[in-house]
Amino acid sequence: MTHFTVSDLSVNYRKNPLGIDDLRPRLSWRISAETRGFVQNAYQVQVAYDPDFGAEIVWDSQKVESDRSVHIEYQGPALKSRTRYYFRVRVWDRQGNVSAWSAPAYWETAFLSAGEWQASWIAAPPRSEESGDEPCDYMRTDFTLPDNVVSARVYATSLGLYRLYVNGVPADDTLFGPGWTSYNKRLQYQTYDVTSLLSAGDNALGCIVGNGWYRGYLAWEGKKEHFGKTRALMIQLYMTLSDGSERIIVSDGNWRVSSGPLRMSELYHGETYDARLEMDGWSSPGFADQDWAKAMITNPPESALVAQENEPARIIETIRPIAVVTTPKGETVLDMGQNMVGWVRFTVRAEAGTVVTLQHAEVLDRDGNFYTGNLRSAKQTITYICRGGEAETFEPHLSFQGFRYVKVTGVPQDQLLESFIGCVIHTDLEPTGSFRCSDELVNQLQHNILWGQKGNFLDIPTDCPQRDERLGWTGDAQVFIRTAAFNMNVVPFFEKWLKDLAADQEADGRVPHVIPDVPIAGYGSAAWGDAAVICPWTLYQCYGDIRVLETQYPSMKAWVEYIRAQGDDEFLWNTGFHFGDWLGLDAKENSYIGATPKDLIATVFYAYSTELLAKTAAVLGKNEDAKAYEGLHENIVRAFRKEFVTPNGRVASPTQTAYVLALMFDLLEEQNRPRTAKMLAEHIEENGVHLTTGFVGTPYLCLVLSRFGYTELAYRLVLQKEYPSWLYSVIQGATTIWEHWDGIKQDGSFWSDDMNSYNHYAYGAIGDWLYRVVGGIDLLEPGYKKIRIQPQIGEQFSWAEASLDSVYGTIKVDWSKQDHGAVKMDVLIPANTTAEVVIPANQGDDILENGERLDQMAGLLGMEQTAQTYILLLGSGNYSFTF
Ligand code: RAM
To answer: Is 469 in the pocket of ligand 1 (CB under 6 A)?
Structure first.
């Protein structure tokens, strides 16, 4: 009997995915072991066409001596298209015991070679618009089937957004297909298992296609058609019959097209739906579509078609409004109790022609009235015209809103509370982290960070989800990614976005400010474009998967070379447009840009990206590049010191952000670091324990303080309640992170309308410090193969607990203060990893584990002692320390 098992098999981070076009999928598993200190000594993977592994084995890795249990690339014969592959795993321990085979898991391939699409791109023929609005297209086809269909898959994509229906019901619960990519270069298609929706005899497929990101309004200049002018659809349905033969239904000129009740759908502006125009049964078989136009065949786009890369968006949860408010102006407003992203699903009973409107907003003004000023031109309005008769239920199709408050007209007050539901929509990322502590305000802060992530991870990482922006701002993504990787598994989400980043880079390596690129935004700013390097590196650190480095390497290198070509000195970056320390509080009156010199910030990021590129080259075995970029990095550091540090070692620009960056990225000589850290601490103290940092300095501020021995000050900064601070917004009732430290000022007035989001995750990057320093979960080797557990226990908290579902399994730290100054700390270390656990206890202090002295402890692999700490090297398992 062995006491370890293999479970949680995944493929490219997903459980049993359909429609993967990766030719070398990465297979991972987790191990549960009853005893401490489990290390995998060898593994065996088998891949087969059947879940019993009874017939042909497609690939047998044989027994491989290795402790790797994550991201093992499939290395068997070339995979076939549209095929399901089962795999199973068993592992050996160091004593030579072998586990049972795991339960099988699978992945199913999509199209693996060009030329498999037989379908045509189809579009609605041009029609004269009845009004200024543009009705969405309804497209349909009928077909008959024999009674022996055993499996059926739809592959579908569109120019625009689409919703697919099979025999009158949605094909599945996914939303916002085909997702947002750099459409003219890369376009995703989705795979649907529709086996259970088809039946013998008559069947139908229907699709609604709207503007979405492809053709709709984007950015702040009121422009549309950023990617193309014509909406279109392509669908291919494969059916396998019981005799093994195949049938295909494709989109072609026989499909029929019409407009319908959905009169307008825009991401920013909402939807207009006239239920009186509903066409009952339009996506069911036998619908009389003879009045519908014939679909037009259009030219295929030039973009590469790729299988969906990230998890789809879905309704992840629903929330009920907490109140109906009548404002001083007499408006009827629903309060959802949470700033959320998605839409409202509602049911009304009213006469035909009754117009119901829902307007969405994030905050009420200081008088308590409905306020939409900060949405700029985004209308976020649902207009629903009732059909009359029975109760009718509506929710938007191809548009989402960012809101806490909903102003409703056309519905009697008493129907509001029970028949309006908030549907929270975001990319269906696996939640992986939690952080809680004894301070309720900090717990609300963590809640706000998490909701900022939910609201802004809808297919791409956006700055904000409400105003006429909602774009993939690179800087915001870069500062938040490490925090994001605690809260959720973000690999497929960012892998997709980074491929678009690479696709949108110009030949000279410049990186647009927003990805997918919407050209009016511009390109090339320090700390924004550096997302090209920082994001892949962060993913590699947090998940230990080199694939993202391999894929992104040319893009990473091109970005560094772009910077190198900019400066008038090869080793400084002192030219071009930069956002600087965006929104820093030391900005001049009426400026958005903090006081830290832009060329200092730019040169810091030049150094940092070059350093990461050199490390990446080393990981990938590109030794020449590694050496060359190490050399470049040294030169940049030298140039930085010459330009931005006085001969005696003082950072020449005395701003918090300048100190933080110089320390964070090791740009100062060793002997000047403690002094600079002290100056930073003094700056903060002199400011009454307040920060002045913006987007660039804030994410690192507390990490730097903690690293240089000022954790106590970091705690005071985080617990600061006065403006400016993280808790200021919490005390003002925020339920997400604000763009501005003073989005709502102390007198209740707002920051100006032109740039004031209440759901902007950038400052939520403090989550990284909460997990790493308060919770104490950090990594020593990529993917948390070797973990560091070192909570820095603050005077102000009596307990804290943090957990992270790493690729190896759950890491958990839970500390609490006991009577008489003792601390209890429980630690969970997943199988096949080790951890360095740093316990803050003086020599001679008593440390007990489960009531026993440490030298009795199973799982202890080594121990070191310094004046104020015990450093224990531990194998996997559960531990409970008191000290
Ligand atoms: C704003 C965005 C974003 C920021 C840029 C510089 O428009 O909202 O957060 O990165 O400006």
So the answer is: yes
